[in-house]
Write a structure and sequence with these properties.
Layout: H1 2-10, H2 21-26, H3 34-43, E1 50-56, E2 62-73, E3 80-83, E4 88-94, E5 99-100, E6 103-104, E7 113-116, E8 124-135, E9 142-147, E10 154-159
Antiparallel strand pairs: 1-2, 2-8, 3-7, 4-8, 5-6, 9-10
């Protein structure tokens, strides 16, 4: 995906004129900071967030997934960002919207975080849907796939703990 790789190389958040300064600062890192988590809690009711994750674990070095995140926003006056450091965002849809300023929402991903402008957020219930492709991990973090030479069976496991 050209837009995502462009922003990974530049390491600058897209749509800088739209995303707030405090969000631009937080997404300049490749990891979630305490300040970034606090910013999100200003917007999202943490205890009312629901994740529905669907994975296609066919053979190969990559897997595909679909995640649906239902969250309640306290305000529509603050931008938010979500962590995703995978290989590729195929599609993003928030409350039925797939584009912002005539660009796909996937262009708001900088390789580590997906930025969501406040103008797309509803006060109350929001539905975010993401389709992605990622590589299995070999580093000890993330999702692993292993073919055991002793029995020839394939095993998968994850180290996907929340922050």
């Amino acid at each position: 995906m050209y837009a995502a790789s462009y922003f990974i190389r530049r390491r600058a958040p897209p749509y800088q004129h739209v995303i707030s300064n405090k969000i631009q600062h937080e997404v300049s890192h490749s990891y979630l900071t305490k300040e970034g988590a606090n910013i999100r809690t200003e917007v999202i009711h943490g205890g009312k967030t629901q994740y529905n994750v669907f994975l296609n674990l066919d053979s190969g070095s990559t897997y595909e997934g679909h995640i649906q995140i239902l969250f309640n926003a306290k305000t529509d006056e603050e931008d938010i960002f979500l962590d995703y450091s995978g290989k590729n965002l195929v599609s993003v849809k928030l409350n039925g919207v797939t584009s912002f300023e005539d660009k796909p929402l996937t262009a708001l991903w900088n390789g580590h975080f997906l930025m969501i402008p406040s103008s797309l957020i509803n006060i109350g219930l929001n539905k975010l849907e993401i389709n992605f492709v990622n590589e299995y991990s070999k580093t000890g973090n993330g999702f692993h796939r292993f073919c055991d030479p002793a029995d020839g069976r394939v095993y998968t496991y994850t180290h996907s703990e929340p922050y």
